[in-house]
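Appendix B, example 12.
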Amino acid sequence: MILENLESYLQSSLPTVAIRMDALSPTPDTQVVIMGIGGKATIRSSMVEQDYKILVRSATYTTAYSTMNSVYTLLQGAGNVLATPTQIIKAISTPYYIGRDENQRALFSCNFMVRSNGL
């Protein structure tokens, strides 16, 4: 549920960028992918914390960097922006460059924790 809500929130906030879940597709060049990070969700009292990885890919370093920073700005510290009863979205890392794919498109990544009243 949170994964789908993250996708919807980013799609409405970045309407010109392709937003996907789980994996990059061959096209378009510029896209954002949201993936749940494996492992057990942390439960603290009535709250659940789940981690997500956001990948950004684009044909140019500048566009990938700019798109990743837009995602980071939208999500870092955001509260109650998802349809689920979310308390807060917090970056676990700052955005970082991870290299280029087989087609020489730039890749950036950032990890986020979503704390909510339920997954």
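The chain has a mean pLDDT of 88. The beta strands are 18-21, 31-36, 42-44, 47-58, 86-91, 96-100, 106-116.
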